[in-house]
Amino acid sequence: MAGRGRPIDRRRFLAATGLGASILIGGGGRLWAAGRVRGDQLAIGFAAVSNCVAPDRFTAELTLANHASLALPRTGWAIYFNVATMVQAADGAGIAVEHVNGDLSRLVPTAEFSPLGSGETRRIGLISDGPTISDTDAPLGFYLVHDPEDRNAIAEPIGDPAIAPFTRPEQLARSADDTLPSQTPALTYEQNAGLSLLPEAALGRITPDPVDAAYPPGQLTITGAARIRHAPALAGEAQFLSAALARLMAGGRPEPGSTIIDLALDPALALPGIAEQGYHLTIAADGVRVAGRTAQGVFHGIQSLLQLMPIAAWQKPQPRLALPFCRVTDAPCFAYRGQHLDVARNFSDKRMVLRVLDLLALYKMNALHLHLTDDEGWRLEMPSLPELTSYGAERGFSPGEAACLQPAFGSGAEGRRAPGSGFFSQRDFIEILRYAKARHIEVIPELDLPGHARAAIKAMAARHDRLMASGRQAEAEAFLLHDPDDRSQYRSVQLWRDNVICIGRDSCYRFIETVIGDLQHAYKQAGLTLKTLHIGGDEVPDGVWENSPSCRRFMAEQGLSTIGDLQEYFFTRLGRILAGRGIAMGGWEQAAQAKIDGKTRLVPPAQRPGFTAYVWSNGWDADRPDIAERLANAGYPVILCNAGELYLDLAYEKAPQEPGAYWAGFTNLRKVFDFLAEGRFDHPAQDASGQAIDPARRSDLERLTPSGAQHLRGIQGALWGENLRSPARVEYLLMPRLIAVAERGWTPAPGAGAAPAVWQQARDAAWNGFANRLGRRELPRLDGFLGSVGYRVPVPGLSLKGGAALANLDTPGLLLRYTLDGNDPTIDAAAYAGPVPLAAGQVLKLAAFTTTGRRGRVATLPGSAA
Q1: Per-residue model confidence as pLDDT tens digits over 393-432
Q2: What's domain 209-330's superfamily in CATH?
Q3: Residue 272 contacts residue 329 (beta carbons within 8 Å)
Q4: Which of 107, 686, 721, 822 could form a disulfide with 79 if both were Cys (CB 3.0 to 4.6 A apart)?
Q5: pTM score, two decimals?
């Protein structure tokens, strides 16, 4: 690729330019010239102005403040930042906004710009497609570059902006037609009004809720001296249980006559649902028995046994544990119960992945869909192609992207910083695979193809340049993923102009064969077989390959007439590559569709043998909300990943402080719990804007046939990585909604098939039971599990009635504390035990606290006016 630079060598740069060290200032790996404004001497502010100026448009304002003793000059600089929309300057501040690529844009001075003097602030009006209603929407990761067109330019971090509060109606509404109210304490109180604190005897003890559980009177007390007896085939399960008990119990060694925990395989065991994953658990005076048809079923029974341990033991090991007598017969309603984790957009390291695996295991989920590659990063070391991680796993500022990928999602100018940069070594990945295997969880890797592939494209271009510099042309072109002569014009949903692999080159297929070979080797090293590869296959923009000479030649050679034919050739050939290696192909639903005569149609399953469709784009705002039903009825195995209910990166509620996206709506705990895998078109619904769906539209949609229902393999939550800027954010967005995903994957939806009134009653009762289990068992358990899980602490609802403040939660049982003196409550504040009298002029501030003293967001309620 012409014009690609090299990584900057400081000493060579100084020598070549003749600049002495005395006029260069460095620190923390950064370098800048004296006599110029530095990045850390600038400050950025951001304020949303209105989302109601025009349909799908918003206005906002940046403030640029200069705290240096020097002026920011008239020319010769640019300020880069990440924002997920195409932003334009909207006033005469003398600063233009230029789109670079993807979510990277920059501010540049125009001819009208006057120098920004010391102590001065400049306001820059912005306009873009919108909306912008929360802190998550703000531009991030600002950095200053002097002489930005210089191949030796250096970036200086400015950082994230100060974000002004969202308070006015035009800031809080997504558009002038937005009918969904912003979340308030009063609205939360109303939504929680149907919940009640259940008596202890009525409280469920196992999550997900088992098919059948009885708890006769009595308890079995065990100590660290308990013995585990098991069949030889259950040695791994016994080892897992032994380690878990060691964490829950203090001291003790097995002794003759001590309690027996018996793990047994019984192939003839009568079980409901997916019997191969079910179990039978008994706790009685003579000991504990966990039986299953398979080792996986026994493992699920072990998790239920552990959940029956006192919550106190999860927070601090206990010398003696009292277990309730029980008889539990249980099995899941779906064979596949998965969670997707995107480590490509922002990287989550091995430690976080292992924590996620432990959470999945605790709630009997059995698949981790690991999104390893995307435009913004390639996250798995491939020994055959080291540039995929030496280049493609790094983000930062490098002129011409010579040394690494450009910053994204606010990752900033400095390279090698998580979460923008990072990858799993082969050793890391093998450890993840073995850890998952011990917990009966299948790790399904995703290598996104042919779109969402910019990290791979750029990494292979870097490889090409390195080898061409040594005159090794054939070797350089062996894995090239782009056509250097391609003049096709396109822009992806995420605003990339160069993120689709050239599928008209044999090097593309050679690349795929090579990385699949490396993947298979990693699985083999872990003692596993790679069964399924998820190939993505989604969001390939219109316009790709149209003006690629390589593709035109390739199409002529293969007898292909249209670009649609070329894309179909790619999926067919990819399927054959995988089938030849004994690997099944999974992908997003777009990979099971093709454009034929200008219309998108289903590809017959015979053309995608063994393909499993993971369906996300089936919300009410999609072209075909019934795409999952259509695919299942056609004969495709289907995994439901409905964006509106199962995308856990969506904001929990419509509140500016809530992190997360909202393009598919807002997804609170109840919405996930209420998810319907079948029959969802038979009940009232709203779109992402809060508008009721016309019953006539629901009546036109395709329903599951009896045979189609047999092709629903299960459900999967999804956690996309754009906003996963820290481990804390991962756990906040994931938990406790993951538990609701697990519930719906294991336990049939309440009231399924019943009349509307009966269905609603059953759903409300089940929700009350689930909410009580979470507030009184699961969240306190998570306070001790894995050293404490950073789940989202619920925000209380508040209502003023008869001069007194009333409070509630969507997870009854957590401690509430409040103040009346204007200060935010701490763990030492007064405990809420009932209505709090609130005089005129007084303000109640109230928050939920975990058992570890961690506080949720504060809710505020003013007293009535005098």
Answers
A1: 999 999 999 999 999 999 999 988 999 999 999 999 999 9
A2: Chitobiase/beta-hexosaminidase domain 2-like (3.30.379.10)
A3: yes
A4: 107
A5: 0.94
